[in-house]
Design a protein that fits this description.
Helix content is about 40%, strand content about 15%. By secondary structure, the chain is of the alpha/beta class. Strands 1, 2, 3, 4, 5, 6, 7 and 8 form an 8-stranded parallel sheet that branches.
Length: about 300
């Protein structure tokens, strides 16, 4: 009788292995999708949008602007949602008309990085044409990372706002030095297949996003850069001084509508039903573990 029971148990074990449960995740069978939500801490409308997305339970990575006035609210929100992976959105620009920010270190400590009013310059071009000093860049970015680390949040990765901090080989070397010093990952250093939704017109943004996530590349991490916000009066009036894409031909700001649309498409049932069926969601916490920070490579 005991022998018969052992045979039955063995057969059951074989059947369990041979027939995968629909609830089990099968590694390698689905593409990986990494959602990177930028500019958190920029203002209240962005923070409350991040809070809504976090409360949905969707795993995502978020790049926090620790140089911005609203970063403390972002910290409070994210402390309640530890499933969200947090990075430092290294900031050297302030691109909104009438809504500016400056260095964490103070204008006197890094005078080559600010304009006459003490704010960061609005564009990459303006920065590169200025007389910025690399030692002041390193001082400021170090201060931003240390502010992030002292906030009580678990910080996992670095990500340059507007690409400014990696716009030249010398600037990129500073970011890599900080990543090594503080044992942090760097976004795009894991061979990610990168797509940004920023410049996609509002009218077709969701359509293009859904088409993209339905056709992700297998065998690598598919990174989508997103910007979200609630359409509030403060957000509605923000004018991006760098991009006509964020304003109508008449000059009416559209950044609020872009960000509202991106939030809504992430929360939509159409997107959520694809999770676990068309792709697996991963974060930079996952990549920092496997393949690990030591596997990072500078993008070509």
């Amino acid at each position: 009788m005991k022998k018969h029971s052992c045979i039955l148990l063995l057969l059951a074990a074989i059947l369990f292995i041979a027939i995968p449960s629909s609830a089990q995740k099968t590694p390698g069978k689905l593409p990986d999708l990494l959602l990177r939500v930028d500019d958190i801490g920029m203002n209240h409308a962005v923070n409350t949008a991040a809070q809504q997305l976090a409360e949905s339970g969707i795993p995502f990575s978020t790049s926090v602007m620790f140089a911005c006035p609203w970063y403390q609210e972002a910290v409070s929100i994210l402390k309640n949602h530890p499933h969200v992976t947090v990075g430092v959105h290294l900031t050297l620009n302030a691109e909104w008309r009438n809504y500016r920010w400056g260095p964490v270190t103070g204008r006197e400590a890094v005078p080559s990085l600010v304009d006459s009013d003490g704010y960061f310059l609005p564009s990459i071009e303006a920065f590169l044409q200025s007389n910025y000093k690399l030692e002041e860049v390193e001082k400021e970015l170090t201060a931003q990372v240390e502010r992030a680390l002292s906030s009580g949040l678990k910080i996992t990765y670095l990500d340059p706002h507007m690409g400014m901090a990696i716009a030249t080989p010398e600037l990129r070397a500073i970011v890599e030095k900080l990543a090594q010093k503080y044992r942090l990952a760097i976004s795009t250093y894991f061979g990610e297949d990168y797509k940004s939704m920023w410049s996609v017109p509002v009218a077709v943004k969701k359509q293009e996003f859904m088409l993209h996530v339905n056709n992700l590349k297998a065998g690598k991490t598919n990174l989508v850069e997103l910007h979200i916000a609630h359409a509030t009066p403060e957000m509605d009036v923000l004018v991006d001084m760098n991009s006509s894409l964020m304003n109508t031909a008449e000059g009416t700001p559209q950044a609020s509508q872009h960000r509202k649309t991106e939030l809504e498409m992430l929360l939509s049932p159409e997107f959520r039903t694809l999770i676990g069926k068309k792709f697996n969601l991963v974060t930079y916490s996952d990549l920092a573990r496997v393949p690990g920070i030591s596997a990072m490579k500078r993008p070509i």
